[in-house]
Every structure is written in C-alpha cells, then in structure tokens.
Amino acid sequence: MEIRSMLFIAAASIIYPLIAYYLLLTLAGIRYYLKFRASMILDDEHLPTVTILIPARNEELVIESTLRAIIQLDYPKEKLEVILLNDGSTDRTEEIGRRFEKEYSFIKVINVENGGRGKSYALNYGLKFANGDIIAVYDADNQPERTSLRMLVSMIDNKHPVVVGKVKTQNWDVNILTRFISMEFMYFQLISQGGRSKLFGNALIPGTNFVIKRSLLQEIGGWDENALAEDLELSFRIIEKGYHIAYNPQAISWEQEPEHWGTWFRQRVRWATGNVYTAKKYLKNITHLKSIFVKIDILTVVIMYYLFSFAVLLSDILFMYGIYQGIYLNAYFTIIVWAIVYSIYLFGIYSSLVLEREYRISYWVLALVMYYTYSQIWIVISLKGLDNLRRGVIKWYKTARTAILKTLYYPLFGKTVDEEMAKWGINFTFEGKILAREQRVKKIAEQLAIEEDVPIEDAQKIVSSILTNSNVVVVSSKKSKAIAIKLGLIPIDRREIYEK
User: Fold this and answer.
1) Of 287-301, 303-317, 337-351, 456-470, where does the model show the most confidence?
2) Could you give the CA distance from residue 489 to residue 173 in angstroms, rounded to a whole number?
3) DSSP SS3 for 408
4) Alpha carbon separation from 281 to 86, 118, 407 (Å, rounded)
5) Could you say which DSSP state residue 13 is in?
6) Is residue 95 left, alpha or beta, with left meaning phi > 0 and alpha meaning psi from -120 to 50?
7) Which of 152, 340, 393, 421 is the most buried (most CB within 10 A)?
8) In angstroms, rounded to a whole number, what is the distance separating the alpha carbons of residues 348 and 59?
C-alpha cells in the first residue's frame, strides 16, 4: 500500500471522527455557556454546613493568600469549617496555618500522619475529621471568589450530589507558558465541562473548587490513593454509581500555574500517568456497566486524551508529507486535511476566548502558534505517561510554587498586609512612622489602579468596599466593573444612578 493511501485511511479513521467529536463538544459547550442560568442562590438559613479541605505540603509561599480568600467567602461562618491538612511540610506552612487557627474559630490545622503520600491520602485523612454535610476542596494555591462556594452549594441536589466550578489562571501574564496554560484551561472547561455537561449531563471533577456530599464520599470509599489523577478517577466512580456531576461556570477560583517548563512538564506527566491508570482501571470493567450512556461517556474521556496526542502527531506527518507532495507531486489532499484540523483547533480556542471575554492581543496571537508548539509537547507527555505506568512508576510530584505578587487583591487586606505589600515594593512607613489606615487604602488603591488600569477613584472605592465588608461598589468604567466582579463585589454603574 502506498504512503498516500495509508495517510488517507488514517485520516478517515482517526482524524475525521476526532475533528467531528471536538467540533460537537465545542458547539455544545458554547450553547451551555450561553444558556446557563444559575439555580436559585440559597439564603443563609437554608445553606448546609460545609467543611473545606485544603491539602498543603510545603506551601508557605501561597497558603496565606489562600486562607485569606477563604475567610472572605460569602458563607455564614457558623456553618463553615476549614481544615488545613498539613501534609508533612518542612517549611512555614503549619506556622502560618496555626496563626489563622488562633484568630478564626472555624479554621483548624491538622497534621497528616505519615504524610507525603499524595493528595488523595491527605484528603482521606482529613475526611475523618470533617463535620460538614458538604465537603469542599480547594488546592493550597487557590483563591476562590467570594460568591463561589455559595453558588456551588446552591446547585447540589439528589441528582447532582457533586458540583464543580470554573478554574482560572491567576498568573496568566507572567510569561508565554502561563498564557498557554490559561488558554488550555479555558478551552478544556469549554469542551470537557460545558460540552460534556450539555451532551452527557456530566462534567469532570477538576481537583479543586468543587463540592460533594459527605455521605456520597463515604459511600464510595473516599479518594483512590493509588490514582495520580484522583479527580478523574473520582469522577468515573461517581458517574458509574449513576449520579451526575453539575458544572457552574460562574463559580470561579483563581489558581497559580507553573511558570517554568520543567515544572509544567513534570506536572503534566503526572496527569498523563494518572489518566492511563484510570483508563486501565475502568476500560477492563466497562462491559459490566449497565448504562450504554455511561459506557460512552467514560470511553470518550479516557481514549480522547491519548487519541488527541496521536492525532496531533498524525497531522504533523500529513503536513510534512503534504509539503513534499505540493512540491513534487502537485497534490493537496494532505494539506487540506491538516488545514481542517488546524481550523477546528483555532475555532475552539477562539470560541473560549470570546466566551471568557478575553480580548488581549497576546492571547489571540499566541493561539495561532499554540498548535505548533504547546500542543506538540503533549505527544512526549503522553508517551512518558504510558512508559511510567509500564515501569510501575506511580509517584506524586508536588508542583513547585512561586510567591504570588499579582493575584486577587482582597487576600492582602489582613494583619500581615505590611509583609505582603513589601513583596510589591510598597513601603507603609514615612519618616519612620507607620502610615494611617486611610493612607494604606490610598497606597493599595494606587497599586490596583496601576496594575489593572482603572481610574484611581474607582480603585479607592473598591478597596474601601472590601475593607468595610460591603458587597456593593459604585464604579464609572467597564474595566472597574470587571475588577469588582472578580473580587466578589456587586458593581453599580454610576451612570445608571444618575439616569434614575
């Protein structure tokens, strides 16, 4: 069989179905986002008790910002329990946690016995101490928006005992890598969360920013401690039981992503290895599942992860062979196939950018080269994941953190504000005297105005609203309104007041 015929068969049997499936997921995701309406938000009286589990191992650079974000959550504190799971940390993680424990009665620090055995082990350990009817999980580098937890909990019901939110990249603007990761997350959540929710009625647990009934967790035996992709494995067990996982794209948490290629590569290899483990675990028993719907759902998730990498490799071959054909044989079939693949890829990325209202030029330009660069590395990652499982290498690699200098702003308004703002290069003393509260507000507002390019008057109002625990702020620009929403405030356009 000649090469051209082999490539045609490969394209027809692998690439075309994959293109159709991803296009279907993208269109379904777009429809889900546009049609989504959050369920009725519960008032304080009807909210259930919640235990937030935060597994943390050597997280001194980020844990304070996370705890301050948790404190700011719009959730009645008498119904909230926060457990910081100190998983054998050798840095100041426990010390920072203890400081919060003394100040806030609803925060506990629990040292995980025989720690360092992975996130699943730490979560199972913490589950034994949880008292809430609902369990919420946030990673140590996550800063949920103020309304996030209430939105998630309000969607829980008997059919949907698990609700997941959206995760955004807080350090997106550090370098090219973090921008790629940010776009990857936006696209993933469009197709795998929004798209799958529309087509199959199920999202996937992202590992953070989700809530689940404690009774369900106990029923299914908690987290699988052998799974590196514990979130995916937990998702399948829940779906297998006949339950549904709901997705609320308005419940947002901001997450720090790797800023160095080596850190990112190790993290993604861990994910790939965990995906293969989950695939092997469920594919061998998939025939025993009663629901054909569940079979298709699980099958598409575990296969698509590796089929995507194989399709990228195959499209590379098509592209190179197409160039050869174009030069020597004047044939364009393979180039056309590659162009279709690339166009669908771009359509998905650009659709997610539009839905997220991300119009920064850097995103739109990088999206053009993302397929040739970022996506190509997934071929190596997939192969490495397969090799790890073949050799029995099941090891948890902790993702390295960097100090958060530009994240959400409300974690900075605590007693350690001097230390935090010093990282920004802001000095709160003048001629040896500590600045007064009003002057501090002005300093932080000036930084906010510079960082986010909003009017200084709006920045001062936003900072004051946060410090006074006010939910409403009057602003004068669209950008200020977006920042206020990002910080969990309810913005009111000044012009609307004048019109009334």
Assistant:
1) 337-351
2) 23
3) coil
4) 30, 19, 38
5) I
6) alpha
7) 152
8) 34
Q: Which residue has the tokens 């829940």?
A: 238
Q: Model-level pTM greater than 0.90?
A: no
Q: How far apart are CA 429 and CA 434, in angstroms?
A: 5
Alpha helix segments (H runs only) across 241-373: 261-283, 292-328, 333-355, 361-370
What DSSP line would sit under 36-73, residue for residue? Answer: --PPPPPPGGGPPPEEEEEEESS-TTTHHHHHHHHHT-
The pLDDT of residue 426: 42
Assigned token pair, 428: 């709160």
Helix (H, G, I), strand (E, B) or coil at 404: coil
Counted residue by residue, the chain has a size of 500
Q: What is the pLDDT of residue 179?
A: 93
User: In this structure, what DSSP letter does residue 231 have?
Assistant: H
Q: Are 138 and 69 in contact (CB under 8 A)?
A: no
Q: Which two tokens stand for residue 296?
A: 């298709």
The predicted pLDDT at position 115 comes to 79
How far is residue 105 from each of residues 65, 98, 108, 136, 446, measured CA to CA in Å? 18, 11, 8, 18, 34
